[in-house]
Amino acid sequence: MSALSTKAIRARLNEADLNRRLVISPLFDEEAQAKPGQAAIDVRLGFDFCIVTASSFGAISEFPDGQEDLGFEPLYRREFVPLGQSITIHPHQFFLAQTLEYLRLPPDLMAYVVGRSTWGRLGLIVATAVGIHPSFAGSLTLELRNLGENPLTLFPGQTVAQLFFHDVVDAAGAPSQEISPQAQYAGAIDMVPKKLSDKVTHDKLKRLRALI
Amino acid sequence: MARLSAQVSQQRARTYPANHKGPHLWLDLVQGLIDTAQGYLHQANAPGISDAEAFSLGKDANLLGNNAYRFLQELEGAGADQIPHPVVGPFQRWVSGLGVNDSIFFRSDHVANYELATFPLLNSLSNLNSPSQSLLDAMAAITWPFRRVTVPSRAMGMLPHFAIVGHELGHAIQDRMQIDLKAYAGAFQDSAQKTAARLQADGIAFDQQIQLRRQDALRSWVNEIWSDAVGICLAGPALLFALGALFELTGGGWGLGVSHPPHIVRLRLALKRLQIGAPSHAEVYAAATGSALSEKINSPHVAELPTADVLYQSLKQNMTKPDAAIAVELIPVIEAIAADIYSEAERIVGLNPEMTYRPPQMKEDLSEHLDALCNLIPPIEYRHAGGVRAVSLAGVLNVGWAALLSKLNEFPATAARDGYDETAAKMEKLQELLLKAVELSEARRKWDDA
Fold this sequence. Notes:
CATH architecture of chain A: Distorted Sandwich
CATH topology of chain A: Deoxyuridine 5'-Triphosphate Nucleotidohydrolase, Chain A
Distance between the termini of chain A: 45 Å
Shape of chain A: globular
Number of strands of chain B: 5
Oligomer: heterodimer
Distance between the termini of chain B: 41 Å
Shape of chain B: globular
Helix content of chain B: 55-70%
CATH class of chain A: Mainly Beta
Structural class of chain B: mainly alpha
Largest sheet of chain B: 3 strands, mixed
Number of helices of chain A: 4
Strand content of chain A: 25-35%
């Protein structure tokens, strides 16, 4: 599986054909974020955070207390941190953040998001859901966890992660043109997850549960 | 008073969008009032003071406390969790670009309409006895009058509609308008005679009071057209679309009264202006979307005006006969003055060349971003060989409207959402993308400016 060089990534950013264009926007400092000779592009920390707070909810479950619909929104407290201000993540704290950049992948590219090693060495884990599917469109949700022993002060606009891109090919080996606009996170803007399972899985689990 | 102070402290701890200092200036003012009231209570407890004096001071303190509480309420909806926060920075750019230095804050409310409120409090506050130092400091830090822009809350506010804020900001600079209305004395006199004739037929004498009301009505109408004109300068066709949507939401009637000229007249005048130029905004829009710009493009139910006689007979069922006659007979007057009002607005707004949204810019916005938006790429920045620059708020609004009105069917289907049909889900997705565009284009600007 081949990875795109930085030069190839930048060529895709300037692609005239919308169907082939890779969008990572805004790129405040393209030269610094996409360094020549590498194979990745740096992305920055955005402004919106969802902080997991203590709540009266029980275990997070597909079927909480017999209720059908699970809403995750009450599990989070939202914080907006503008450019110039900061937010501190304390040891062992977990919260959701977004990339500042909006991403739109063409159907023939996928990506991996990886935390920058500088932050990793300080204990900050940036992403756990690391694969980004072709045709993804939205700001990327980052799952931040401070595994270190010191609080870390984070400023929106700091580079926190890198994206590595790979070609996606169809069964014949040609660039994929398959688009899945119904994917759960196509055009995703919000960080809060919507559901644990797709409808088919959910309904199957429900029937299996009823058999017991 | 201690409870009020605690509430002010709570409000200070909130995040206000775009680091906007307006809410903090307002809270300083509230705290100054509370401190002044506490000073009165302190005086009332001083040894040797008479019961009557103590009672009077207590009453004054109570009054100030009530005002402080009311002022706190005025700030409701200004927090980053209440107002669609990405819009505040770009709105402030409009305010600053128009040379409005008055202190201001933005808030949202659960309303469908937009409002520019003005708080000319300086004189009344200056007359307070024994003001606290904190009140004096707060008053000095404010550029008076204090202004407040209200937009519909998240639930009500579709971003493209926010072009109406351009109209509201027009009201903030209406005092700069320099139009010699004497040039239209003939039309105004002719309208007076027709008004008098209508009223005479109904047994009402055309007196000085009615004449003064006509003058007030004309002033209000001129201010409305002026504000439309400023909005057109700032936002281009987006204001026409947003006005149309607003009129449609308010019932689609004539919208005619002594405070406002008829909806259809306002739309027609705005469209006329958008058809000027080579290319004009209208031509650019038509070329990009394949749809002609028309006065009722986004307001099919706004009513055409009937004949003046029919209009008068209808209006006087719901308003006084003098008001009905005044409104009917002012229509030709405002139509005669409108071109000058628009030209004057263009002159004033054009004093800062960056503030006017011109057809070539619209052409670039639509050609770069309209199809891209339909491919889930928000209009954040332009990438040209010469570099990268941010899209303006007006650009986002116009691309958004063009997509909403002409390309929504090209929008990719989105994952089903509870309570949304397919069209509504697409509109919601468009709204999210546009808000993202406003947020990130503003971030781009701030980063570049730093």
